[in-house]
């Protein structure tokens, strides 16, 4: 088809997403703030006893749909990456105490998305990671695209 965006020679781009749920506890507390400031900024989420979430992460990869395989990437490979980057270090963990990154970085969902992004790019083919979306609760959702 002459002039078509998707002539037979063109490559099509697709987005594939895999969902992964995990459970973890945390406390919102910044090392850059006093105890009083922490209590004021984070309220109940600064309670020293912490609290838990059942997080759901959406990992989206963008890439050319390979003509031969029909895939952007094999979802089985993405599943392996998610196991390594999300499940092993984060599931059933205390984010602040068990994950060294969060010793000095406050464990907000924004920072959790950055942590997952930074580690996911290390195990995925270059330039393929498109988006990390985290559902912290049914109502609280964070998106990070590496900016
Ligand atoms: N910008 C951010 N704000 C807040 C974060 C965060 O990660 N980024 N996190 C929290 C708390 O950790 C916690 O997630 C809040 O939980 P909660 O208020 O219970 O969640 P809901 O709003 O969904 O609950 P409802 O009380 O039913 O509305 C706080 N802020
Ligand atoms: Zn929380």
From TrEMBL:
GO biological process, one term: tetrahydrobiopterin biosynthetic process
GO cellular component: mitochondrion
Pathway, per record: Cofactor biosynthesis; tetrahydrobiopterin biosynthesis; tetrahydrobiopterin from 7,8-dihydroneopterin triphosphate: step 1/3
The protein's Enzyme Commission number: 4.2.3.12
Signal sequence interval, chain numbering: none
Function as written in the Swiss-Prot or TrEMBL entry: Involved in the biosynthesis of tetrahydrobiopterin, an essential cofactor of aromatic amino acid hydroxylases. Catalyzes the transformation of 7,8-dihydroneopterin triphosphate into 6-pyruvoyl tetrahydropterin.
Family: Belongs to the PTPS family.
Name assigned to this protein: 6-pyruvoyl tetrahydrobiopterin synthase
Organism: Oryzias latipes
């Amino acid at each position: 088809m002459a002039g078509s965006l998707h002539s037979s020679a063109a490559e099509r781009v697709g987005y594939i997403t895999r969902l992964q749920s995990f459970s973890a506890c945390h406390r919102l507390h910044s090392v850059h703030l006093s105890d009083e400031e922490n209590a004021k900024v984070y309220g109940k989420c600064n309670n020293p006893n912490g609290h838990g979430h059942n997080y759901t992460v959406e990992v989206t990869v963008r890439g050319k749909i390979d003509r031969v395989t029909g895939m952007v990437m094999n979802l089985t490979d993405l599943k392996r990456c998610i196991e390594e980057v999300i499940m092993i270090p984060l599931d059933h963990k205390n984010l602040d105490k068990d994950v060294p990154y969060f010793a000095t970085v406050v464990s907000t969902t924004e920072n959790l998305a950055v942590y997952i992004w930074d580690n996911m790019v290390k195990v995925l083919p270059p330039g393929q990671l498109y988006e990390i979306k985290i559902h912290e609760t049914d109502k609280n959702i964070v998106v990070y695209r590496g900016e």
